[in-house]
User: Which sequence fits this backbone?
């Protein structure tokens, strides 16, 4: 099935017709599959390049299972918890496959601290934003564990740069104040997150907090400090747990018109075929938030989930997207409108069974008023990118 948003297949006078093909992995300028996952894709200035601050994963064999984060046994060589995940910056002029260029490696995924100063840790889910006040690009990454400093195993790493491609310099580890988390007043299980900068320059972090392992995960939102490098720990500047499912991670946070959207993905440890999406809306980043839909991704009734390691094809969950939520890309169009494109990581679906080549799903979001319509799978769609 193909979806065409504009007519024609040639370059326009103000932009370019770009076809997004979900049947093929995305390629770099050397026609190689890009090793880029769970990150942010955005333009920082009108008419400029798109930048993708993304995670890279090791070239090792996927387990091909619902529990997709091997730590031992037959897939011990592919453990994703041994400081072997990398962080890199990519760019593209128009988001097209074959145009992606690797600009900078922020963290190499080795035990050696490189020029960026990132300590030897396991990192996931890189996110980048621009701070107009400090004129710095700020990058965050989730820290699962570090080789030498156990206390930072449940925190976030921060870094800054003067250009979107870097080089980025490590600034430190940060955590929210445990007292603002209510009954779950400890740092156990800090996890997936997303950064959002509002029009007034205030930045927020929506993050997963809960217990380790397959159990409960709740979502909270915290206002950040003015430099975006720490949390504003005043109780009035945070909210949570958010309504909806209590087994959520991999959030997306964006604004359309006057409405703020928090998209909460079902939790799965890089599991086969993803885990659904809750949609929440609010008139302010700190709420109050309303649980609008139980699932944005048809075929995955999240309320049936009892733990984070059981999602996947079968009776519980077989989502349309066949992927876990990554990020909502805002694409400026020649028409003057903005297309909102939902992206997800297709874990365990690499063409050659290797972790570093796992593809993504890109699907256009359609709205009815302020309501997002359920996702529909399409093989490919075309946008006239400004």
Assistant:
């Amino acid at each position: 099935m193909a979806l065409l948003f504009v007519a024609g297949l040639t370059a326009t006078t103000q932009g370019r017709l770009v076809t997004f093909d979900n049947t093929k992995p995305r390629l770099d300028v050397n026609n190689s599959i890009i090793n880029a996952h769970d990150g942010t894709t955005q333009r920082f200035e009108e008419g400029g390049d798109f930048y993708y601050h993304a995670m890279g994963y090791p070239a090792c064999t996927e387990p091909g299972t619902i529990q997709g984060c091997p730590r031992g046994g037959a897939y011990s060589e592919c453990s994703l918890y041994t400081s072997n995940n990398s962080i890199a910056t990519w760019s593209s002029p128009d988001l097209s496959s074959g145009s992606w260029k690797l600009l900078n490696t922020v963290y190499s995924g080795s035990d050696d601290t490189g020029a960026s100063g990132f300590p030897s840790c396991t990192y996931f889910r890189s996110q980048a934003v621009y701070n107009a006040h400090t004129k710095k690009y700020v990058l965050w990454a989730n820290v699962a564990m570090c080789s030498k400093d156990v206390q930072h195993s449940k925190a976030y790493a921060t870094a800054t740069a003067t250009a979107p491609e870097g080089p980025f310099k490590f600034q430190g580890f940060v955590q929210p104040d445990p007292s603002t988390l209510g009954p779950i007043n400890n740092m156990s299980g800090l996890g997936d997150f997303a950064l959002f900068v509002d029009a007034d320059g205030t930045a927020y972090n929506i993050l997963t907090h809960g217990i380790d392992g397959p159990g409960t995960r709740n979502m909270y939102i915290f206002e950040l400090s003015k430099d975006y490098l720490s949390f504003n720990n005043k109780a009035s500047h945070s909210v949570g747990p958010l309504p909806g499912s209590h087994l959520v991670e991999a959030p997306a946070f964006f604004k359309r018109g006057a409405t703020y959207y928090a998209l909460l993905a079902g939790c799965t440890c890089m599991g086969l075929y993803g885990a659904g999406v809750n949609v929440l809306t609010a008139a302010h980043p700190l709420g109050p938030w309303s649980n609008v839909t139980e699932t944005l991704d048809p075929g995955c009734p999240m309320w049936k989930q009892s733990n984070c390691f059981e999602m996947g094809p079968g009776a519980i969950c077989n989502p349309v997207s066949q992927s876990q939520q990554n990020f909502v890309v805002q694409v400026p169009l020649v028409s003057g409108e903005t297309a909102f494109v939902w992206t997800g990581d297709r874990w365990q679906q690499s063409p050659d069974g290797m972790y570093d080549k796992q593809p993504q799903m890109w699907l256009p979001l359609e709205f009815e008023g302020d309501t997002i319509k359920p996702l529909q799978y399409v093989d490919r769609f075309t946008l006239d990118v400004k």
Remarks:
- The mean pLDDT is 87.
- Residues 40-322 form a domain with the Tachylectin-2; Chain A fold (CATH 2.115.10.20).
